[in-house]
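Assemble and predict.
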Amino acid sequence: MSPSSVTVYVNGIAVTLPGGFTVAAAVARITGHFRYAPGGTPRGPFCGMGYCGECRLRVEGEFRLACQTPLSPGLRVETDG
Amino acid sequence: MDSDLIVVGCGIVGASIALTAQKAGLRTRLIESRFPGAGVSAAGMGHLVALDGSELALSARALVLWRKILERDPERFEYRRTGTLWVAENDSDLADLAERHDRLRVVGVPCELRDAAGLAQEEPALARDLAGGLLLAGDGIVYPPKAVHEFLTHAVELGARIETGRRVTALLSDGVILEDERRLAGAVVIATGSAGSELLPELPLIPRKGHLVITETAPPLIRHQIVEAGYTQGLDAPGGLSIAMNVQPRPTGQLLIGSSRENGISDPLVSPDVTAAMMRRALRFLPGLNRLAITRIWTGLRPATPDGLPYIGRVPGRGAVWAAFGHEGLGITTAPATAELLVEQILGGRGLLDPAPYDPARCLQ
Amino acid sequence: MVDDFDLVIVGAGPAGLEAARSASESGRRVAVIDDNPRPGGQIWRHDPTERPPRPLRQLLADLESCEAIRFFTGHRLVAFESGPTLVLESATRARRVRGQQLLLATGARELFLPFPGWTLPGVYGAGGLQALVKGGLPVAGRRVVLAGSGPLLLASAATLLRHGAHIEAIIEQAPTGDIARFLALLPRWPFQTATALALLRRLLRVPYWRGFWVAEARGREGLTEVVVTDGQMERTLGCEALGTGYGLVPNIEAANLLGCKLTASRHPAVWVGRRGETSRPGIYAAGEITGIGGAGRARLQGALAGAAALGNLRQADRLFDRSRHAEAYARHLARHFQLGEPVRRLARPETVICRCENAALGQIPEIPSADSRALRLLTRIGMGPCQGRICLHALAEIRPEPFLPDWFARPRPPLFPARLETLAGSDDVTSPRSDVRSL
């Protein structure tokens, strides 16, 4: 099974990955810091199942959970820095 | 162990009274059935606002007291001087705001009118078809649970005592009986908010249910607390529902969205229909809210009196029993003035405010 | 606009899918809702680099041929309206569905016990890391430690190994004796035995430390090493990723919001009767939400409740006896992976407990109270986006009080952060079919 590849942009940087992967997978290739908690400490994905909110960042300008969002071609992702 | 004053209920009003009484040299004891601030105090928006109309005198005095309280360490109350921006949907609303402006100016509350362009300048996120607004720059917000905690901590430092998780089962003319059958002697203040008429059934109290909605943390959308001009209208319809937009930027970066009023409803469950209507009303004024995530919705019961003014004063025929409840949606703002007014009366003195409008005797049934 | 169904199933894991198959035999209209992009739940989470597990393939094949079943994947249940109507949200829009009967199969999540450094990027849930890796999180050539308690550590390790990770060690807090006793009686449950053997075969070369735990995770901007201890000796293991989890807790929130009765335990489950019925009429529950017992038990319960919900009581009762045997496995699991005292004492005053609000243990006052509300109001713990799903369970382990029945008081809606326009229910929210994925 080799799904066709998808290119997305994480903080403006192009990342190409197999389809079927998540936004979290793409961001992790650029940075481990997905958002900053109150107080400014960096956070990355944690629960992996969409409830902890630690991987929340902007996808196409809107807050989404990176771990629950499948990649689609051309998606623009900004970490919540 | 006797006390000079037994305060039943440790919400913002009870804690404020305990602090003021203790400062005045009264040995004070607080009795709280759940935990401090568990009731209507925790449910509210925490605004410090000058409302005109019958509540003006009390809220104006309270804002003076709040300024003193907040001088010391505003962060402990999570205070923000957001101001209140009253917004007018149309010219008739704007005319109302102009009248309000004049009334507030008379009692020394600073405020300024804004036309449509001025309004857009104050808050670019507001809908573009609004007529104008009235800015009360001195208004602000606190976080009520912290405010209760601060007043209580201060009172306890000064020697007040508190018992939590303890219910008062009977009210005497010179004390109370607790659920563990202990009898406490002293003058009594009933400051139990929405539960006020449980111990004092002769004072009518109407629960006025409200819903609140809070968003996730997000980049700032607005700077002021924003309230629609019609906020204080249409509240008297019995059994009726009234929705009015009121949105606050919280220090956490969240937006707190109100408001609803339902007369005579004491069921605490969240009504999806009411909250949907509230959110649609908020969207009418702030269309940019649409994609923000809501993280929590809750309800509270405002303790409303028949004439909209709180009961502050001695309860006729009850001996040394005093009332301090019925503040509806303005308890956070008016708590310090309530405490001042009540403790003055208990000590037999006379202060700045005329106690007559708040005398419980006016509503005795 | 509301879509009406005879049965709405929330959760497309083993319990939810079995319930759907069982219900499909009736030919009535069934909806299955899941917030993940694909069915399978956590245990059968989709991995694009691998064929789906056989039981999932079989279930999906059976369901695919069934016209009356509609899948709403990528849709999260966020709120209830009267009826109850279920308010769903996808990445782009809202929908509303209503069922004559409702079956909750919302599964479980991990129990986390806070320790210094657990908020560092690079520290994940154990199952969380497994899920992220299936979603493409890169681990090839990286050093990984898995730590905590329970069989999930092994399952996660096996997935990571297959994706090229170097597993430094699996750190299990339960002592060797408990693990041995767990394994000794395992053959009573052939399905679990086969799973365990398959896992252990794949993990032959991975060190499995029993009676140890991770006391601290270290690193500046991200994880670089963990401190492992048995309470006496300490060892430092260099690693780029740590997966940690101390077992599972039921996802009770939807049931709790609907007022379903919960069990009186430290981490409550939804109470169900012998036909999967909850205390609320027309609402059923199946799988991990009713108690942690693994996929085998979840499938049986799902099949049972799915049949019962549509009135096939004979079928439900036939399954009941088998489900009792699976129930015994749940007890067996709980008994031998009991959490020891030391892992509850790892947090220091400055250790964050509530990740959402960044609130540390030392900021949480020792207020004696019958519910968690006093603490939540004062410190905001549990009031962030996760709504206490992590910290309230951690505190239920950490705090000195005995278990308080009101600790998990009825939650505030919405169930998950939801867009204002979704809850505002504006009429322009339509429900185009393109939003519904077919299998």
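Chain A touches chain C at residues 1, 3, 17-22, 24-26, 28-29, 32-34, 37-39, 41-54, 56, 64, 67-70 (CB under 8 Å).
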